[in-house]
Design goal:
Elements: E1 5-6, E2 8-10, E3 13-15, E4 22-26, E5 33-38, H1 42-61, H2 64-80, H3 82-93, H4 97-116, E6 125-126, E7 133-141, E8 144-148, H5 154-167, E9 171-175, H6 181-194, E10 201-203, H7 208-217, E11 223-227, H8 230-242, E12 246-250, E13 255-259, H9 265-277, E14 287-293, H10 294-309, H11 319-334, E15 338-341, E16 356-359, H12 366-369, E17 376-382, H13 385-393, E18 397-398, E19 400-404, H14 408-417, E20 422-425, E21 441-442, H15 454-459, E22 460-468
Parallel strand pairs: 1-5, 8-9, 8-11, 9-10, 11-12, 13-14, 13-19, 14-17, 16-17, 19-20
Antiparallel strand pairs: 2-3, 4-5, 6-7, 7-22, 15-16, 18-21
Helix pairs in contact: 1-7, 2-4, 2-6, 3-4, 3-6, 4-5, 9-10
The chain binds nicotinamide-adenine-dinucleotide.
Nicotinamide-adenine-dinucleotide binds near residues 149, 227, 232, 250 and 253.
């Protein structure tokens, strides 16, 4: 199912890295070798960008309906290969198959949603001061889109970018995470089968510093669309911004879930567990802060800890990750936080860290402000809604936020005041679907939204067209 050597995809050809070098990809569940992956560098990036440049004009000539049809075909092929795609994701990430199946289904849905835009792609018509003049907007492709992404939900991460990027008439160079090359490889194969012309979707594997950075720096790349950490995003914005390339960043979060004293506690506990620990906390929308009203704090904490003890641990993506999380949790307790459950690497093969809950952390402590991207959450005690909102907003990030309350007033006040791109009432710190724009404020992004029709704004330019119908009478 997964080849022993995963090659790049350049101009429709499966090719090894120019240097002939490859990287080892290990399984998170037991650290055994899953496959080897092309270790690309600047020359591989240059070939992929050249292939994209050659293919893009012909692709842009196709109508939006035709491009939508090919996107639909690709989504349907992915649906046909649902079990295989999900098994690949489960192997390369270590996540349960059930979770992977849900992610494959979401990726298919994203493709079908984008395909439908082929018969919409609405612009605007407007008035003009001059007689006999019609003014309208049309969408134009940007040219070459560099798509760089994280490992956490590898297929949706690819689908959320590749489908709208190519639909809009761009040619793309995709740089998947070095931790999840296999699902991207499958996607590339399906794209060819679906009729995506050679060179329209290229894939360059490798490390961020060796394959990602040259792609960001390449003068012929018109757009960089990136999903990953704020640190990398900041560098990308500076680097691509210098040549005024368009940059869309979807970055991290330190998402808070608030539990008020009128919340359904069992439901709040269930959502807190799912929000904090699903996918081993490796979600940009993970609830790494649980902000609980004083009156229900003890009851919520007891039920939460009981739930955590029943969780089946999932591995994180790499040895570096498990070590980084372990060190950060160690520093948190040294700085005064109290460990309630977990806190250690599990003694078994693979990269497992016990689901962990802390309390008594200072609001300005590292653990309160830094994203860990692991199965770790922190409880905070507040007196009322205004304190809760102030705490939620006291963060460099602003991706998602949730509140559990029976009060419409509290829900609406929170929805208005929480500094976040997504607010959820009475559920988890997520809830986005392919037709909903997703993204954050502050250090969580640059204001663009992925998915939804909003994604079309990332991958196209709007051109204003003035039509004068009767030049003799103006
Ligand atoms: P990362 O920034 O380390 O890597 C992301 C991607 O960028 C990888 O493909 C990597 O190889 C590449 N990369 C690294 N350095 C690069 C460079 N200098 N130039 C170009 N590319 C480079 O992030 P990660 O550890 O893979 O992912 C975790 C982060 O992603 C978290 O912060 C998480 O919150 C965020 N994330 C955000 C969203 C969202 O939609 N907002 C979704 C998923 C993950």
């Amino acid at each position: 199912m997964i080849p022993r050597e995963i090659p790049n995809l350049v101009g429709g050809q499966a090719v090894p890295a120019a240097s002939g070098e490859s990287l080892e990809k290990l399984r998170p569940t037991d650290e055994t070798l899953l496959c080897r992956v092309a270790r690309s560098r600047v020359e591989d990036v240059a070939s992929a960008v050249a292939a994209a440049r050659a293919a893009q004009p012909g692709w842009a000539e196709r109508t939006a309906v035709e491009r939508g049809d090919i996107v639909r075909e690709l989504a349907l092929l992915l649906r046909d290969r649902r079990e295989e795609a999900s098994a690949i994701v489960a192997e390369e990430t270590g996540k349960p198959l059930e979770l992977a199946l849900g992610e494959t289904d979401a990726s298919v849905e994203m493709g079908l949603f984008v395909a439908g835009e082929g018969r919409r792609s609405y612009g605007r018509t407007t008035t003009a001061s001059m007689a006999h003049r019609t003014v309208l907007t049309v969408r134009q492709p940007l040219g070459i889109a560099a798509l760089i992404m994280s490992f956490n939900t590898p297929l949706p991460n690819v689908a959320w970018k590749a489908f709208p990027a190519i639909f809009c008439g761009n040619a793309a160079v995709l740089k998947p995470s070095e931790h999840t090359p296999a699902s991207a490889w499958l996607f590339g194969g399906l794209a060819r089968e679906a009729g995506v012309p050679d060179g329209v979707l290229n894939i360059v594997h490798g490390l961020g510093s060796e394959a990602g950075a040259p792609l960001v720096e390449h003068a012929d790349v018109d757009l960089v669309s990136f999903t990953g950490s704020a640190a990398t995003g900041r560098w990308i914005n500076e680097t691509a911004g210098r040549r005024l390339a368009k940059v869309c960043l979807e970055l991290g979060g330190k998402n808070a879930l608030v539990v008020c004293d009128d919340a359904e506690l069992d439901s709040a506990v269930r959502w807190a567990l799912a929000s904090a620990f699903s996918n081993a906390g490796q979600r940009c929308a993970s609830a790494s802060r649980l902000v609980v009203f004083d009156d229900v704090y003890d009851a919520f904490r007891d039920r939460l800890l009981a739930g955590v003890r029943d969780l089946e641990p999932q591995p994180v993506i790499s040895r570096e990750s498990v070590e980084r999380i372990s060190e950060a949790v160690g520093r948190a307790t040294q700085q005064g936080a109290t460990m309630l459950v977990g806190g250690d690497r599990l003694e078994r093969p693979g990269w497992y860290f016990a689901p962990t809950v802390l309390e008594d952390a200072a609001v300005d402590a590292e653990i309160s402000r830094t994203e860990l991207f692991g199965p770790v959450t922190v409880l905070y005690r507040v007196g009322d809604l205004e304190q809760a909102i102030a705490l939620v907003n006291d963060s460099p990030y602003g991706l998602t936020a949730a509140i559990h309350t029976a009060s419409v007033h509290r829900a609406m006040r929170f929805a208005e005041r929480a500094q976040a791109g997504v607010v959820v009432v009475n559920a988890g710190t997520h809830g986005s679907e392919p037709h909903m724009g997703f993204g954050g404020v502050k250090d969580s992004g640059t204001g663009w939204r992925e998915a939804g029709v909003e994604a079309l704004d990332v991958y196209s330019d709007l051109k204003v067209v003035n039509l004068v119908a009767d030049p003799m009478r103006t």
